Task: structure prediction
Amino acid sequence: MTKILPPVDSDDILKMIEDDDYKETIIYKRLTEIENGIKILKNNYDQENISSLITMIHNFRGSPIMFGRNSLIQVAQQLEVSLKQHFDQNKPIAPDEYDEIQKLIILMKEESLTKDASHK
Amino acid sequence: MTKILVIEDNSDNLTVMEYLLSKNGYSVFTAVDGEKGVALAKKEMPDLIICDIQMPILNGFEVVKIVKNDTKLQRIPIVAVTAYAMVGDREKILSAGFNHYMGKPINPEEFLVEIESILPAELRLTKQKID
Result:
């Protein structure tokens, strides 16, 4: 959908830019969505599911809510690259790889609640 | 009024870029995929295009190819705003025809300064000094 908008002012947008607590909440929520995406993939590996998950992670790490969260961005990027390799090679993810990914997500969720050195 | 077209499928980024630009007086047009973006560029003839790379239907590389091969559109500066951050991506993006590259996540405090540094002086709407 395309549209022409006049100047807007929205509390939600300002929160997305300025409110650290709001950002933390959204980051945690999106990590949970990614975690759920990985569970779906584990039960039903196919190209469509892995593509959706890659897009989800790509959008997550590029979102304005992630500005200043460099360590989280780096881990998300590593995860995206790893999944992209599986997608490109159409190679299923081994059970031990799923376990590693899930551990990574748990670490990211913990880290999302901790303001790292780069967090403004 | 200076017209800026933002082509972006990530709603968070689209919302923030649209907000930052429109709040500063720019006329902002948005599209959520490359195909709609190209159509809107032809219709509105913006002064600047901000374009994501990874998008449905037409990706950013396909958009820049169409824009730079269109005699009416090719003068318009086009900025890639992307979460791609692999080695060589910047060079690949610039060599594809983009005039400028910005990484995601965008820094709200620097976004406008960077965008205005690409616009010709007469089209900038804020009074900030551009080095």
Remarks:
- The longest helix of chain B spans residues 11-23.
